[in-house]
Amino acid sequence: MARKDKPPFDEIGHWSEIKLDIVKEYAAAYSKILSARKSPAFHHVYIDGFAGPGVAVSRTTGEFVPGSPLNALLVEPPFKEYYFIDIEAKKIEALEKVAGQRDDIHIFHGDCNQVLLQHVFPNVQYKDFRRGLCLLDPYGLHFNWQVIEAAGRMATIDMFLNFPLLDAQRNVLWCNPEKVKPEQRERMTCSWGDESWRDVAYRQVRGLFATIEEKKGPKAVVNGFRARLGKKAGFAYVPEPIPMRNSAGRIIYYLFFASQKPVAEKIVKDIFKKHGSRGGR
Predict the structure, then answer these.
(1) 252-269: pLDDT as tens digits
(2) Which among 158, 177, 207, 235 could disulfide-bond with 212, CB atoms 3.0 to 4.6 Å apart, if both were Cys?
(3) Which domains does the chain carry?
(4) Are strands 64-66 and 11-12 parallel, antiparallel or unpaired?
(5) What does DSSP assign to residue 139?
(6) Closest CA to 161 of 14, 276, 46, 19
């Protein structure tokens, strides 16, 4: 099959299926709580920045499984609106077929970092009694810190974020940081928000002839990013993220959650604990 004719459906590992279940379970609880609010009534929306085609293929079973957009559309009570974004045209075409023609669904073909700031977040304003659940699930370091900080400052967004540790380890967080390509360092800086990631990932050590940078463990980066979500982005509640591991036990990424509400943190902690036994921890 020619590359241009390749189906847009991604093959996902069991760790991705765990992630989908986690987001789906929280989305159901979130929509139930927000739908019950009457005075004032909230207009709650679902936002997916890397939506994909809406359906994936399980690497374990070979069967089709619902992706995050389809899971969101099946939540009861439903969200008031849905915003789905993807940069790949073929995935957008497939998603449009899955979603169908509905006035409450808005599908954008483009870079979610721009679309979210320009077209989506302006529709989720605190003063308008609007709230949103946002999923950012990139394949690698393709998210922009500006988006995360904007969501935190708005005080209307609950967010799940995939922090792609494996991508960072392979391409940026090398033992010798001076050998890392400038474009790779820039990806990390864009996702982190500034170059302070170097101070988090490395320590200054006196060598035989000069001071050198020594790499810390990956947990230092994870803890540092969690701290930024709270102190820099302004999210009030950021529970410890859940690690997602491949079949060999290697951590692929950490799934973060951030919110302004203590009840949201409690719900997510319970969900993380429940699904951690499936391979997340």
Answers:
(1) 999 999 999 999 999 999
(2) 207
(3) 3-169+219-280 (3.40.50.150)
(4) unpaired
(5) S
(6) 19
